[in-house]
Amino acid sequence: MKIGIDKIGFYAPHLYVDMNKLAVSRNVEPEKYTIGIGQEKMALAPITQDSVTMAANAALKILDEEDKKAIDFVIFGTESGIDNSKSAGVYVHDLLGLNPYARSIEVKQACYGATAGIQMAKGHIALNPKSKVLVLGSDIARYGLNTSGEATQGAGAVAMLISADPKIMTLEENSAFLTEDIMDFWRPIHADKAFVDGKFSNEQYIAFFNKVWNQYKAKSGLELSDFEAICYHLPYTKMGFKALKTVLDEGTDEDRERLLANYKISTQYNRNVGNIYTGSLYLSLLSLLELNENLQAGSRIGLFSYGSGAVGEFFSGKLEENYREHLHVVEHEQLFSSRIEITVAEYEEIFQETLPVDSSTMELDLEKDPATICLAGITDNKRQYVNKVFGKVPVMK
């Protein structure tokens, strides 16, 4: 039985900062951001968007009523959870109006969470072939104003429908994975911003890639020449390039040319959104599928997932016939074209807007947020969400 990605979509907030202008305001050469780390724009989540709303908005555009009835498992990968007890998946399940007879959970392992969700989904569908699983990767990357990690922030979500007989990509059986207890990136319970040892994290990312790549080759018997492209988790777009370079000598000149060209295409969405943690790898995949119109059915795509702390995995998928017919290219073009650039001063002001941490009530102005699903406020320590299509408006106390 073939199991894989039947549908895929993404959402990014409607606000962004130009990285050239951010660099100038930080007294940094713009090329350090645009070339050195490979970022052009940074998506910024207003206070009316969080990991729940972004995931729900990403899924909203790809699911039809048949999907909503068939989904019996929601797996939400995030490191930007809003509750230490209740899963973000439960909120999304309600906001989308899914089949009530379903499991809904949240998975955490840094940027690896959505990949864990996909592997769990494969096992569930193998036992329940008629089921469909909604896998979500949604995060807001926050390091703080004027910090070393500021240029690698971002916000967004990717939603994937995993099913039998998928329309876009069949996930292959072979997979290689690795866990090591390291402190390259972490965020303690008390902190609202991450801590990172940047140099060490870069080194571990590459080391993990090489270890799981070699394990994958031993398991599968495949080589570099068997791949049309390799997509990477992208905390910033230059990171995957550093890893890819370490294996290019294994292929021919033709292999190197093909993989480098497709890598560049796979980074275009990420360059204009920024780091979205659990969704970054799958935004890279989406960029490749939607922007390269020459990929053929049967092409094998490699996928490298890395979550600091750390867990890494390399796996692969093969494109299905007519897969492009099931992508949402026009909707994603419209999402990008409708975004609004804000000044650095506006970015700094929005970045510092936060929800109350006591029992205060806060009602938010939704008029400035064009998204269908928004955070409307907080009351009695409960977040109040709105799906404008459902007309579900909470009563603020």
Automatic annotation (TrEMBL):
The active site is at E79 (proton donor/acceptor), C111 (acyl-thioester intermediate), H233 (proton donor/acceptor). Transmembrane segments: none annotated. Pfam families: HMG_CoA_synt_C (PF08540), HMG_CoA_synt_N (PF01154). Residues 264-352 form the Hydroxymethylglutaryl-coenzyme A synthase C-terminal domain. Keywords: Transferase. (3S)-3-hydroxy-3-methylglutaryl-CoA binds at Y143, K242, N275. One of its GO terms (molecular function) is hydroxymethylglutaryl-CoA synthase activity. Residues 2-165 form the Hydroxymethylglutaryl-coenzyme A synthase N-terminal domain. The keyword Iron does not apply. One of its GO terms (biological process) is acetyl-CoA metabolic process. InterPro entries: HMG_CoA_synt_C_dom (IPR013746), HMG_CoA_synth_N (IPR013528), HMG_CoA_synthase_prok (IPR011554), Thiolase-like (IPR016039). Belongs to the thiolase-like superfamily. HMG-CoA synthase family. This is Hydroxymethylglutaryl-CoA synthase.
